[in-house]
Amino acid sequence: MLNMFSLRGLPWVSSSDGQEKVELTATELESLRSELADLEDREAHLKAQLEHVDEILRSARLSGYLYIRTRWKPLPGEPPPIDDTDVDDWLPRFIVLHGSCIFFYLLSTDLSPQDSTVLSDVVEVASLPSITRENGEMQYCFYILTRHGLRIECSSISKIQVLVILIYLYV
């Protein structure tokens, strides 16, 4: 079985019956056992991560990747924000609408969200003008405004995905 692997640095020796085998010292054997235990721990962690993601997605109402950027509504007396429509600061995020919250993950495999918003804090949801990205791809946009003044701008190449989210948030 060991012949199937290219284990560099291990002392291969031919036995009297013509088969190759590896001879290890006790230290080398313990080191390999430790590496194997580390790999088993990593495998267990990845399986738990996958089960967690699977559970969230099964119970989520909606989920998927959107491009997100955030803005704060100016406070009374503050000057209007600088026009930054030319700034491309849209970041891909995996969103999950689960229960009474919207969760924002960096990646779909992350165990904990990067941010979240309670739906009861949402005071306004509306469409934004579509934008054309540098690659010529059309992005359909909308925003979510919270009672705290946080404006979450979202976009997707899928008009249907945006419409479904808007319908869900309106209800």
UniProtKB/TrEMBL annotation:
Asked if the keyword Coiled coil belongs to this entry, the reply reads: yes
Keyword line: Coiled coil
Q: Highest taxon of the source?
A: Eukaryota
Coiled-coil stretches, from where to where? 22-56
Alphabetical list of InterPro entries matching this protein: PH-like_dom_sf (IPR011993)
Q: Which PANTHER family match?
A: OS05G0595500 PROTEIN (PTHR34837)
* Name of the molecule in the record: PH domain-containing protein
Organism expressing this protein natively: Citrus sinensis
